[in-house]
Write a structure and sequence with these properties.
Blueprint (H helix, E strand, L loop, with lengths): L1 H29 L10 H8 L18 E11 L2 E9 L2 H14 L2 E6 L1 H5 L20 E14 L10 E9 L4 E8 L1
Antiparallel strand pairs: 1-2, 2-6, 3-4, 4-5, 5-6
C-alpha cells in the first residue's frame, strides 16, 4: 500500500510539475516582447518591419538634434505588430513637420487612441500611446494625430478585422513628434 501511495504521489507531482512547465512555456511565447532599445532603431526600420511603405515617413536615422528618444516595437505575432518612435526636436522643426503632415493627412484627430478614433463617424484605426513611458494608452488632447494612410484588409461583415495604418502624432507645446505604424 505504501508503494502505491508513493507512485500515486509521484505521478501527481509529475502531472502538476509538467503542466506548470507547459503553461509557463506557452504563456511566455504568446506574450509579445516589446523592444525599447533605441540603438536598434535602424535595424527595426530597415530590416525587421516587413513593409517599408508603412515606415517611409519615419526618419532614416534618429536625428542628431533629437532629445528624449523612445521607441516601442512589437514584432509580428499572430498578424499584429506596431512600431513607434517618439522624440523631441526644436520647435521650428516640429512646426514645419506639423504643416507638412497636416497637408497630407487623410484623417485628423485630437488626443485619444485607436478605439476612440475608429468609433467616430468615418473613423479609422490609429494607434495607442506605446511610447508614453507609463500605462497610458491614450494621447492627451494636446496631441494631433495625423493618419497618413490606412488599409482595410477585413472581409465583408468584418470591417477592419485586418489591416494597417500609419502616421504621426504631434504635440507642439512639448515640441514632440511620434511616428507610428500598426498592423493587425
Amino acid at each position: 500500500m505504501k508503494r502505491s501511495q508513493f507512485l500515486l504521489a509521484l505521478a501527481s507531482f509529475s502531472i502538476v510539475g509538467g503542466s506548470f512547465f507547459l503553461r509557463t512555456t506557452f504563456n511566455s511565447t504568446k506574450e509579445p516582447k516589446i523592444i525599447t532599445d533605441t540603438s536598434r532603431y535602424q535595424e527595426i526600420r530597415n530590416q525587421l518591419w516587413s513593409d517599408n511603405d508603412q515606415v517611409k515617413h519615419f526618419p532614416n536615422q534618429i536625428p542628431t538634434d533629437a532629445k528624449d528618444v523612445r521607441i516601442a516595437y512589437s514584432p509580428e505575432l499572430q498578424g499584429s505588430s506596431f512600431f513607434q518612435i517618439r522624440l523631441k526636436q526644436p520647435p521650428n522643426k516640429i512646426e514645419k513637420l506639423l504643416s507638412q503632415y497636416r497637408s497630407s493627412a487623410k484623417h485628423k484627430y485630437r488626443g485619444g487612441n485607436t478605439n476612440d478614433h475608429i468609433n467616430q463617424p468615418n473613423g479609422v484605426p490609429t494607434t495607442f500611446f506605446y511610447t508614453s513611458g507609463s500605462h497610458t494608452e491614450s494621447f492627451p488632447p494636446n496631441y494631433e494625430i495625423l493618419v497618413l494612410n490606412t488599409e482595410d484588409k477585413g472581409r465583408p461583415g468584418f470591417k477592419w478585422n485586418h489591416g494597417n495604418s500609419y502616421g504621426v502624432a504631434i504635440n507642439t507645446s512639448a515640441s514632440e513628434i511620434i511616428y507610428w505604424s500598426e498592423k493587425w
